[in-house]
Each structure stands twice: as C-alpha cells, then as structure tokens.
Amino acid sequence: MLEHTITIPQRAPRAKRRSRAWLAAAALLALAGVGLWQACATQVADLGSVQQMHVHGVYSALDNDEVIVLVRHAERCDRSNHACLNDPAGITREGSQAAAAVGDGLRRLGLAGADTLASPEVRTQQTAAFVFGKPIETQDWLARCDDTFARAALAHKREGHNLVLVTHSGCIDYLERRLGVAGGDRSPGYASALFIRKGSNGKAELLGQLNPNQWQALLSQTGK
Hints:
Blueprint: H1 14-40, H2 50-55, H3 58-63, E1 67-72, H4 93-108, E2 115-118, H5 122-132, H6 149-155, E3 163-167, H7 169-178, E4 193-198, E5 204-210, H8 215-222
Helix pairs in contact: 4-5
C-alpha cells in the first residue's frame, strides 16, 4: 500500500506575524497621513473672476491696504525662442506686452499708489518698467530666493500701503512653501501675480493668483 505524506504548512513565528502586522498598520497610517496632509495643504486659489476675488477677500484687502502682490518677471529671453526685447539677459518682446497688461490690471485694481520694489536682475527691472511705466527702485533681497525672503517681504509692507514686488519664481516658491502650499501647486508662470494679505497681527495669508491672460476677462466683468 502506498503511503501518502501530507505536508502541513508551518506558521510563521508569532514575533514575525506581529512584526508584519505592525508594518502593515504603519503603511496604512502613512498613506492616511499623506492624504490628510494633501487635504489640509494650502491651495492657490484662481482669482480669474470677480466672484473669486470677492470670495477670497482680495477686494476688501485692497481697500484696507493689506495686500502684497508678488509679480514674477515676464518671459526670459535666454529660455525662449521668441525675440528678445534688447538685452539677452532680459525679457522677450512678448514678455514686455504681458508685463504691460499686468500693469494696466494692477492700476485698475487701485494699486497705482502702492509701494513698488523690484529685484535688480535685468529681467525683473525690465518687467517692472513695463508694469509701472517707469524704472522703479531695486533691492538685492528680492533676488535672494531663500528662507529669508518671506520675512523680508512682510517687513517691507508698510501699514496703510499696499505693496507690489517684482521678483523670481524661486522667491515666490519659498513664500508659498512657508504658507503651506504643496509642491505640485507651487508653479508661478511668467508675469503671474500672487496676492497675499498681511493682517493686523503681522501674519501672511495667501489670497490667490492671477495669470497674465486672465486680467482682461476679470476687468471686463468689473467695468473698470
């Protein structure tokens, strides 16, 4: 008679089973933490309509002189196939037109009397000249895109005066990071304008962003 051998699977030692359970629980907690962080991360609101400007408090902040606007320089000549304005270290001709449109939009929002500063780089100086219709004061800290930028921006905001800063994507990125914006949402385009409120407590609040192609539609809704 043939004998049949039955193999009984061996159970993993209790310590290993416990270790696997802990690893599985840790993985689930990590996934839950990532989901919660993404849900709680600060979002960059699209301000391309009058309704959104009201919802996110931009108009009231402007009226109360609480706003800091960070304008990224227009399209760089050295990273584009478009014709340069003049200096290869500066912006393109198309970029100068975008900057002029941003300047028109800012003035029609009531920011003609705002304090204005720009980075000393050629591309930011040229952008600022088209935004404001004239050369404006430059300060070196506006080109230092590091952890000091956010503090410097808030420190230069005077009470009773809105502030417009022409700077770089890296500097805007640092400020957004300090305000809790997730990495995938920190992508300011050329000549975009990021609106920040500095409240009476001295803290910054992100209001939202306008891209250069949104100004005309926004202002047509206001009739300004």
